[in-house]
TrEMBL record:
Domain NADP-dependent oxidoreductase span(s) in chain numbering: 19-264
InterPro entries: AKR, Aldo/ket_reductase_CS, NAD(P)_OxRdtase_dom_sf, NADP_OxRdtase_dom
CDD domains: AKR_AKR1-5-like
Alphabetic keyword roster: NADP, Oxidoreductase
Originating species: Jingyaoa shaoxingensis
Name assigned to this protein: Aldo/keto reductase
């Protein structure tokens, strides 16, 4: 990968940009301008979800950009309470209505479980995937993927799918690199993606990252993003200013040495968001209007 415009080719032939822009916590008002600024900066891959409440804003920004829809790669997700055969089909239609689009480039299941006590999560996920496959066949989603699915969750889908997942989004960054989960997904031909690739900002002042930033003449954030890119992982970045957006794109003119990648991969694994599909699942949304 040599620039933000470079793409991976997924197993289904779909081309996916090597760097994406996340829209979590961008819900309107000034955030419409943030997404417009990201488009002006050069981002074309945007990641949203019904849970983020940013689909309408994203769709508006794209329409008002004057850039053809076909030049964008748009991904969105079904939330925990939108899992199920009928539920996910209705959820995808709602997302398309909010986006004001005929299709998305990638549609994902956001989390594999609603709670740690959900006894029938496997059956529900299989039914969800079946509904997504039908929506894919209807042309409403060019690709299908997963988010926060670890190997034990991936296997449930892989063993029952007609269409294999193309991507899987996990929290991945130095200090929480999830080596086993990444290696497993990659071994199945799934393109791994990193949400929170900067550790929700916790890695910016990390001693190791600061040292490597000085060594390579980059920022700690750029070291984190380059770490993902060199591992073949697609980072999904977030920023609110043009300057930071451009900094996050400026990660293709240097290479971290193999030794330093190893050091970053072996950092103590104690910097994570606190969310995990087998330990702590996000609380269900409240007062959320999915219509």
């Amino acid at each position: 990968m040599n620039s933000i415009n470079d793409c991976y080719t997924l197993e289904n032939g779909t081309k996916i940009p090597c760097l994406g822009f996340g829209t979590y916590n961008a819900k309107g008002g000034d955030n419409l301008e943030i997404i417009k600024t990201a488009i002006k900066a050069g981002y074309r891959y945007f990641d949203t979800a019904s849970f983020y409440e940013t689909e309408r804003v994203l769709g508006q920004a794209i329409r008002e950009s004057g850039i053809p829809r076909e030049e964008f790669f748009i991904a969105t997700k079904a939330w925990i309470d939108e899992r199920g055969y009928d539920e996910v089909k209705a959820a995808m239609d709602r997302s398309l209505e909010r986006l004001q689009m005929d299709y998305v480039d990638m549609y994902l299941i956001h989390w594999p479980k609603a709670s740690l006590e959900e006894a029938d999560w496997k059956e529900r996920d299989v039914l969800t995937w079946r509904g997504m496959e039908e929506m894919h066949e209807a042309g409403k989603a060019k690709g299908l993927g997963l988010s926060n699915f670890l190997p034990n969750h991936l296997d449930v889908i892989l063993e029952n799918a007609k269409i294999k997942p193309q991507v899987d989004q996990l929290e991945i960054h130095p200090g929480y690199s999830q080596e086993a989960a990444v290696a497993y997904g990659q071994s199945k031909g799934i393109r791994m993606q990193a949400w929170s690739p900067l550790g929700r900002g916790k890695m910016i002042e990390n001693e190791v990252l600061t040292r490597f930033a000085e060594k390579y003449g980059k920022t700690p954030a750029q070291i984190c993003l380059r770490f993902s890119i060199q591992k073949g992982i697609i980072p999904l970045v977030k920023s609110s200013t043009m300057e930071r957006m451009k900094q996050n794109m400026d990660v293709f003119d240097f290479e971290i040495s193999t030794e330093d990648i190893q050091i970053l991969s072996c950092m103590p694994q104690n910097v994570w968001s606190g969310e995990h599909p087998e330990f702590k699942i996000p609380a269900k949304r409240s007062n959320f209007n999915i219509i």
